[in-house]
Design goal:
- With about 575 residues, the chain is of the alpha/beta class.
- The chain contains 25 helices and 16 strands.
- The strands form 2 sheets. It has an 8-stranded mixed sheet with strand order 1-8-7-3-4-5-6-2. Strands 9-10-11-12-13-14-15-16 form an 8-stranded parallel β-barrel, surrounded by 6 helices.
- The longest helix is centred in the N-terminal third of the chain and has 25 residues, at about 40-65.
- The protein binds phosphoenolpyruvate and magnesium ion.
- Phosphoenolpyruvate binds near residues 199, 301, 303 and 462.
């Protein structure tokens, strides 16, 4: 039976493929019966997974030495469970006696233990069942390997490009695995339009729809799907006519993309010869070829926290240095802006371990980004040293996320000086004059932008967070996503104020949030005075096509008038006219 689901369009385009349901929890494991000869091997596999997870916890204990006591306690409890015969010995017996695969044996034992914990009267003891589940999840993940690979293996015979991942939700770490395994699309029950997961979907340039409600329970594995990432529609088991229509539309979109490719070498300037710089946002060193392919003039935002995601440990200085060096060298003399970690909020080192730390409430307002870096001086020094060391390979800039206070900038600059001086002491080369910029993504920073202009070399407006904080809506919550409005007069006022204030003192400002890559907003931003845009490589050529057709002399006065409007309908109407 054919039916249609509606959600939020987060990444444009059309995908046609087969549904591949991704487990809500990793605990929905396959149930396999082993031959007697396989039993010993399976037990060895189970033992190896337990050992690996123990090692992971041990590394975490060392690398989070200064973390809050709750985190240490959490690691202790998990380690203790991993030494408990109930979790380590019993599953081995189950594998041997019932000839189950390791994942299934472990989950059976977990269910048994959880039912025992449920019987405790003491609420503290009852709650410990969640620790058991989390420990088991860790071991199951280890047994399954990286989720992307496990998924692809489960669908042998179908090439990954034709698979559409259907999930309840995906963490940014899950999506990282999609960079290694190309899927046609992914669709989720939850998620907002500028959640980091959605941003990643756009960076992968695969059509995606989120916030579908209950797609996972309505769609069955292997069913044919059409994902319309432009309209936010998913058609399940389409009839042949609809399928044909979408195939044609998909071909048209591909044709348009091919046409846009011709603009790659065109100079990015308006009709009246105003130069507009178009930079790329990247998450991993592997994104560099895509940025060059799209004709990016440099990297305007390297979200380094993605180096952490999906792993249980922290990359050391050497590993970070190698990653940054790869990007700087890969960009062949073009500038690279490296943002220090924006960890916390929805981007945890590992989805489980930071939970205890962030107490699960309002992570977006908590100790994230620069706040976390300043609270973890060792981690911060490691990163700053690695970035400085990479700076000798090409023009490199340092960007600091989530600044709000003057003292945060001062402390950051002092930390940078410390990193520089330690490298000088070791006679290690780096760029002494590395430029330092700040993200303007908290309304306070936009309003009191003078503090930033006096202390920093450049600014970058992070509109994703700026909108989230200005309008008090969680950017990853689909229930409030309709309130996420880049055109809200308050948002436009903050951007305009930042641009105008910086222009007065000659400090460069870019926009690196999703607004920069939205072609419907290119003219508006140009008219507001923006000359540096940083976006996903997949958006660059389309934005360029709009830049080439724009004339600043005409746009500037129109946009100035537009900014005086504070009625949303009028603003919308004016935007349509501007783009006509
Ligand atoms: C932003 O907030 O606009 C931004 C670019 O940073 P991130 O999306 O990584 O929070
Ligand atoms: Mg941000």
């Amino acid at each position: 039976m054919s039916f249609t689901l509606h959600g939020l369009p987060v990444s444009q385009g059309i995908a046609i493929g087969r549904a591949m349901l991704m487990s809500h929890a990793t605990l929905e494991v396959s149930h396999l019966t082993l031959t007697p000869r396989m039993v010993d091997k399976e037990i060895a596999r189970f033992d190896a997974a337990i050992k690996a997870v123990k090692g992971e916890l041990e590394t975490m204990r060392v690398t989070t030495e200064h973390a809050p006591p709750e985190l240490a306690a959490f690691i202790d409890i998990h380690t203790m469970f991993l030494e408990d015969p109930e979790l380590v010995e019993k599953p081995r017996d189950i594998i041997r006696d019932r000839r189950c695969n390791a994942e299934w044996a472990l989950v059976q034992q977990m269910e048994h233990l959880v039912s025992q914990f449920d019987e405790f009267d003491d609420p503290y003891l009852r709650e410990r069942k969640f620790d058991v589940v989390q420990v088991v999840e860790r071991v199951v993940k280890e047994l399954l390997g990286r989720p992307g690979r496990a998924l692809a293996k489960a669908h042998k015979g179908v090439t990954e490009e034709l698979l559409i991942v259907v999930a309840h939700d995906l963490s940014p770490a899950d999506v990282i695995t999609f960079k290694e395994n190309r899927f046609a699309s992914f669709i989720t029950d939850v998620g907002g339009g500028t959640s980091h997961t959605a941003i990643l979907a756009r960076s992968l340039a695969i059509p995606s729809v989120v916030g579908l409600g209950n797609a996972r329970s309505l769609i069955r594995d292997g069913e044919q799907l059409i994902v319309d990432g432009t309209r936010g529609v998913v058609i399940v088991n389409p009839d042949p006519r609809v399928l044909e229509e979408y195939r044609l539309r998909k071909e048209q979109i591909e044709l348009e993309k091919t046409k846009l490719k011709r603009l790659k070498t065109a100079r990015s300037q308006t009709i009246d010869k105003v130069a507009v710089q178009l930079f790329a946002n990247i998450e991993l060193p592997g994104d560099v070829p895509g940025a060059l392919e799209a004709g990016a003039e440099g990297i305007g935002l390297f979200r380094t926290e993605f180096l952490f995601l999906g792993r249980g440990d922290m990359p050391d200085e050497h590993e970070q240095y190698e990653a940054y060096k790869k990007v700087v060298k890969g960009m062949e003399g073009r500038p690279v802006t490296i943002r220090t970690f924006d960890l916390g909020n929805d981007k945890d080192i590992h989805s489980d371990e930071m939970c205890a730390d962030r107490v699960k409430t309002n992570p977006a307002l908590g100790r994230r980004a620069i706040r976390l870096s300043l609270a973890e001086p060792r981690m911060f020094q490691t990163q700053l040293r690695a970035i400085l060391r990479a700076s000798k390979y090409g023009p490199t800039k340092l960007l600091i996320p989530m600044l709000a206070h003057a003292h945060e900038i001062d402390q950051t600059l002092a930390a940078l000086e410390q990193a520089k001086s330690s490298l000088r002491g070791e006679k290690v080369a780096f760029d002494e004059n590395i430029e330092v910029g700040g993200m303007i993504e908290i309304p306070a920073a936009a309003l009191a932008v003078g503090l930033f202009l006096r202390r920093l070399d450049f600014l970058s407006i992070g509109t994703n967070d700026l909108i989230q904080y200005t309008l008090a809506i969680d950017r990853s919550d689909e229930q409030v996503s309709s309130l996420y409005d880049p055109l809200h007069p308050a948002v436009l006022m903050l951007i305009a104020h930042t641009l105008a204030s910086a222009e007065k003192v000659g400090i460069p400002v870019s926009v690196c949030g999703e607004m920069a890559g939205d072609p419907r907003l290119t003219r508006l931003l140009l008219g507001m005075g923006l000359r540096i845009f940083s976006m996903h490589p997949s958006q660059i050529l389309e934005v360029k096509s709009h830049v080439l057709k724009s004339e600043i002399e005409v746009l500037a006065p129109t946009v100035r008038r537009m900014l005086r409007l504070d009625e949303p309908a009028k603003l919308q109407e004016a935007l349509e006219k501007l783009n006509a």
